[in-house]
Write a structure and sequence with these properties.
This protein has helices at about 35-40, 110-120, 140-150, 170-175, 190-200, 210-215, 250-255, 255-265, 280-285, 290-310, 310-335; strands at about 10-15, 20-25, 30-35, 55-60, 65-70, 75-80, 90, 95-100, 125-130, 155-160, 180-185, 225, 235. It is of the alpha/beta class. Guanosine-5'-triphosphate (GTP) binds near residues 134, 187 and 189.
């Protein structure tokens, strides 16, 4: 038996491509695979290693190691992907989520709500990064920043331009030793370009002109963790098209904390804040204490998170009763023809 003389150590998962993992020890990077025991014992994606995880490894041969176990995760960043019930883990052990938007067509306050909700649900500190500020004037930038401050109050905002190196030093300064920073945002906002700047060399493939003419093509196709010179760690992600809410509501309620607070004084405890008399939220929207578009986005994200929180059984019942209702209406129509 080989089991006895196995020496275990701990490594960090830095990448995952098609069932193969790259892990990093204090000395170097290695290829890794999971043990058969781990594979057969895994019930869902949550049981497999993901980027950011600390894992228990043993040497297999040459540059290969075996992953035996995922060590307890400090934080989990997850979303709901289209058409899937189970949440999808983006990365683990994240300390800070850099939520990146470009100041051009990509700029959208409602999208920040989404990313902020998933960060908050994972108990991860968010920082907003506005990139490509070379594309707009100083006054336009000021206007955008004040929109963000008005909507999100206390969240830290960094403004950057990879093109003229603006704000990159401030961003680098915000990255601390041994902490993990995850870059999130739509495709093309400049996540990989920013990380290349932080690394001080072009390690990551970014979108070039010829790629950008092919619609929908992402420059980054897999998630990867990089260690910066100061010992801080950054994770590059492929741009995300779907950022569904995968939590029972805490994330959404904390991002919209003013609305949640008002909701406690609504007349009905099950108030939906859409039409009820005595709704404190609607009153605040009418009095313009709460921004209308923020309120509408709250309803939208809350609906998503409520649906997510429903059990499978409840979902089936809801779908069935909807099916029955459709059936009834159709029958009624037929009979009255
Ligand atoms: N003008 C300008 N262009 C930028 C800036 N940052 C990045 N870009 C350009 O934007 C394009 C997209 O950059 P990427 O770094 O590939 O974007 P990404 O967010 O990593 O995209 P995905 O990997 O597809 O998610 C590239 O052509 C970059 O050169 C910037 O600050 N200003
Ligand atoms: Mg990229
Ligand atoms: Zn209400």
């Amino acid at each position: 038996m080989r089991q006895k003389d196995q020496v275990f150590s701990v490594a960090r998962v830095v990448a995952h491509h098609r069932g193969k993992y790259r892990v990093r020890t204090a000395e170097r990077e290695l290829w890794a695979e999971i043990t058969g025991k781990m594979m057969y014992g895994a019930g869902s994606q949550a049981d497999y290693p993901v980027v950011g995880d600390k894992v228990k490894i043993s040497k297999l041969d040459g540059n290969h190691v075996l992953i035996h176990e995922v060590l307890p995760r400090k934080t989990i960043l997850q979303r709901k992907a289209a058409g899937k019930d189970a949440p999808q883990i983006i990365a683990t052990n994240i300390d800070v989520a850099f939520i990146v938007q470009a100041v051009d067509r990509d700029f959208n306050l409602n999208r920040f709500d989404r990313y902020l909700s998933i960060a908050s649900a994972g108990k991860i500190k968010p920082v907003i990064v506005l990139n490509k500020i070379d594309l707009i004037s100083k006054s336009e930038l000021k206007e955008k920043v004040s929109q963000i401050i008005k909507r999100f109050k206390k969240i830290k905002i960094l403004t950057t331009s990879v093109l003229d190196n603006n704000g990159i030093a401030e961003l680098a300064k915000a990255i601390k030793k041994q902490k993990i920073y995850c870059f999130l945002g739509s495709s093309g906002v400049g996540k990989s370009s920013i990380i290349n700047k932080l690394l001080g060399k072009n390690v990551l493939k970014t979108r070039n002109i010829s790629i950008s003419t092919k619609k929908g093509k992402h420059a980054t196709t897999h998630r990867e963790l990089f260690v910066l010179e100061n010992g801080g760690m950054v994770i590059d992600n492929p741009g995300m098209r779907e950022v569904g809410i995968a939590d029972a509501g805490d994330g959404v309620e904390s991002v919209f904390f003013e609305i949640s607070r008002l909701a406690k004084s609504c007349k009905f405890s099950d108030c939906t804040h859409t039409h009820e008399t005595g709704c404190r939220v609607l009153a605040a929207v009418d009095a313009r204490e709460i921004d209308k578009s923020k309120y509408l986005n709250y309803l939208k994200l809350k609906k998503e998170s409520d649906y997510y929180a429903m059990t499978k059984l409840e979902k089936r019942r809801k779908d069935q009763s909807f099916g029955k209702m459709v059936h009834k209406v159709m029958k009624h129509k037929r009979e009255n023809r």
